[in-house]
Amino acid sequence: MERLKMGLIGVGGIAENRHIPAYQAWSEHVEITALQDVNLVRAKEVAEKYAIPNVFEDYLELFKHVDAVTICTPNKFHEAIAVAALNQGVHVLCEKPMAMNADEGRRMIEAAEKNNRILMIGYHYRFMEAVALAKKSMEEVGNPIVTRVQALRQRKVPGWGVFINKQLQGGGSLIDWGCHLLDASLWLVSPSKPVEVNAQTYQCLSKQPEQVNDWGSYDHEAIDVDDHVSAYIRFDDQSTLLFECSWAANIKEDHTHISISGEKGGLSVFPYEVYQPKYGRMMETNTDLKEDDQQAGIFQAKNFIDACLGKEKLKHNPNDALQVTKVIDAIYESSEHGKSIFLEA
Length: 345
What we know:
Elements: E1 4-9, H1 13-25, E2 30-36, H2 40-49, E3 54-56, H3 59-62, E4 68-71, H4 78-87, E5 91-95, H5 102-115, E6 119-122, H6 129-141, E7 144-152, H7 166-169, H8 173-189, E8 194-202, E9 228-235, E10 240-246, E11 255-262, E12 266-268, E13 273-278, E14 281-286, H9 293-308, H10 318-337, E15 341-342
Parallel strand pairs: 1-2, 1-4, 2-3, 4-5, 5-6, 7-10
Antiparallel strand pairs: 7-11, 8-9, 8-15, 9-10, 11-12, 12-13, 13-14
Helix pairs in contact: 1-9, 4-5, 5-10, 6-8, 8-10
């Protein structure tokens, strides 16, 4: 049986906690053959732990020994590594967000198309069973009217890695977690396309000196990324999306929410429920599907592997990921300039 040779670039938490276990779940179809990280000692430790045979200092050398790579670096390096890999004929799964901005994302897509290689962005929420079922249910919902999205955490600013460094990451709560819910919701309401964004970003609670934070300590003076974001997004069909995300909200508990009110019915994703007017009353359909990151990561890995082997098409097109990045760019621009930002339909 043909097995895909996989290399991982960056061996931090997302590589070890999501991608390595996901590929190991499909070991009949993929083999992790190489690692690269700027921290060579750490790379060697991970290689030994998971019996990965090769470690490279330079990712350009790694490309010669693999069919595909998974990029798990800080966001600043996504574009350069992805384009270099694609130009060497190597397929790419790149962690979200796609890049630091839409221009970088476009160059990644151009490289993939020029070299006829697979480019996938790691928006694994689409592979959650509840999200996939919600997509199938949109026929019962009909044309969307209002979509509501919340990705809220109670005092959980990541106190590790480079999450609070704008130069390396490009942003905070929006591009770390909120982008997953943004991608999922844009997919659910498609083909509606966002045309206008009015937003505000905040950096208030995480800058306070006396921190209550469940995810470790960090330098409150050094943080220079958003800890809370709200946005109003209008689509080409006049439907709207109300969006909110936060790392550090003063709320009772963490909250993940996507709901859509449509012309024929409505739905909630977490938990999965569909609401429709039938027989003179409102009827509800529901099933017990959880927000399972690990399972979604496994499904995502299988789709990428099969796409690279020519057995299946991607379930997440890189042009969809580019659309998410365009909206993210508009959110930051709207907040900076205090006005609506208009996108091409």
